[in-house]
Amino acid sequence: xxxxxxxxxxxxxxxxxxxxxxxxxxxxxxxxxxxxxxxxxxxxxxxxxxxxxxxxxxxxxxxxxxxxxxxxxxxxxxxxxxxxxxxxxxxxxxxxxxxxxxxxxxxxxxxxxxxxxxxxxxxxxxxxxxxxxxxxxxxxxxxxxxxxxxxxxxxxxxxxxxxxxxxxxxxxxxxxxxxxxxxxxxxxxxxxxxxxxxxxxxxxxxxxxxxxxxxxxxxxxxxxxxxxxxxxxxxxxxxxxxxxxxxxxxxxxxxxxxxxxxxxxxxxxxxxxxxxxxxxxxxxxxxxxxxxxxxxxxxxxxxxxxxxxxx
Amino acid sequence: xxxxxxxxxxxxxxxxxxxxxxxxxxxxxxxxxxxxxxxxxxxxxxxxxxxxxxxxxxxxxxxxxxxxxxxxxxxxxxxxxxxxxxxxxxxxxxxxxxxxxxxxxxxxxxxxxxxxxxxxxxxxxxxxxxxxxxxxxxxxxxxxxxxxxxxxxxxxxxxxxxxxxxxxxxxxxxxxxxxxxxxxxxxxxxxxxxxxxxxxxxxxxxxxxxxxxxxxxxxxxxxxxxxxxxxxxxxxxxxxxxxxxxxxxxxxxxxxxxxxxxxxxxxxxxxxxxxxxxxxxxxxxxxxxxxxxxxxxxxxxxxxxxxxxxxxxxxxxxxxxxxxxxxxxxxxxxxxxxxxxxxxxxxxxxxxxxxxxxxxxxxxxxxxxxxxxxxxxxxxxxxxxxxxxxxxx
Lengths: 311, 393
Fold this sequence. Notes:
heterodimer, A: alpha/beta, Rossmann fold, six-stranded mixed β-sheet, 45% helix, B: mainly alpha, 3 domains, two-stranded antiparallel ribbon, 15 helices, 72% helix
């Protein structure tokens, strides 16, 4: 099957600053892909380029095999790319029903919008969507009165109403309660059955809930790609997230983390005990006293970072 | 739930049909009253004044369409207003015996009628031109501005700059359109009747009322359905709309062009009821005043635009008759009051806040608004029933 989205050697520079640097990316149709990366990694620019808000400096973006260069945002949207913004953006002075009807409209030129009433098929779609996003009871009040979470869902609903082939979702759970986060995850998973979806997210718990394949961006390039577990144990990912390169090999690091997390697991170790475990563990791998000291500090820092370690 | 929803929709649509019917009846009654009762009540001078204000209300409708609904603050509607006015005035100026050209050309030594005057001999052409020319000018200006995604304050500044360009151009062209002196229509005839005669003025007044009603219906139609909601969407979040797959440029150009055309009609009717049109109609202050009428009445409400115009204009007449010096101060104060105390204008205030504020004044508790759908929410109903049941049994 041909990839739905292909990105070759994409570079975007703003006055010399490269927000994206020779990025390569590809995803299959029907895939749910999560993109993570520290602040400033170029995640939002990545979406901007796909949706036509920003033009690539070099390289190209192909969607369904077609180069998107020099297509305007609205054309790309009609071509099948839907985007959800970081903060919920719905039309506050319209009701949820009207919001959805606007997104649902099949013929989006001026005169069709002027002369054609909303078709019964569209009304049916809107009704179904209102039920899916749980806003039936509030379908006739202004969207400005909805809660933050409801607005997020309404925007996802609008995205679906557009019936795109590819959904780009930028931080869908920012500012949501835990319960809403889980519901949003379920919603995205059910959507993934019939759409290709790219999700950008910071919340690792949430990523774990939905992720199949994760792509890590760093300084505008792809750092690595793989399952959530692979990615979390990749030393380069640990480095960019924690800011320091481990001095020991991957396997050693993994062992250390497993052992130390076991030791930490019950949470009832006295500080002295912890010191002993740390110094013994580090002594096992270090070759001299200085390295042992360093390794001990490093280990302590990793543990203090509260990165979840499962394998 | 699936059974209930359709009944709710049909109820709502029949209710809105009923409201539409009531609105139509009110408009017809008001229109008939204005057209036939007012001439009997008011003196000739007062009637002319009302006619002029009503024609200004037409341009206010156009401003409301582009500003109140679409969120584009145009400070250059004087252009379209003047274009309509000039088109009609030129036709009146050409009511001459064969071979003669309007008198003022003699002052500047012009012997031949300028080419662009020729088509204005024809009355049907003039009628079309006074709508189409402003529409095209607005459409072109709009296309250039909106295609380049110029928005907000920059749009306002550009329209004002365009206004100044037109103002200076019309002022400077003595040989073409009599420059600063403008075109006087008072002394001309239309269909053999003197334009300033009571008979002609009464007809102009009735046509103005009719034009206002038609403009209202047009705006109502535009703002009511899906198109109207799209205008609001453009106003509230244009970028979102773009990413939903709409190109806002076409919508904005169309609305701006319609708004310009409406202003053209208003300008023509205003001119014949004032007796003269000069480039002064394109002064910056006048175009800003148009915006103030809409702001006072309530932007985003069509009735507000009409009401605002009448209120501000009558206040102006009243005050400048009694205390000629005070008007400008009053106008400034009015604008400040609207911005600070009534941000949604008079109609907006009546719609949203008046009830509660009046209740508060007479010492009654305020009504708390809640989600109206709570009553219709089947889940709530079911819960209520379940709560009631144990008590009954």
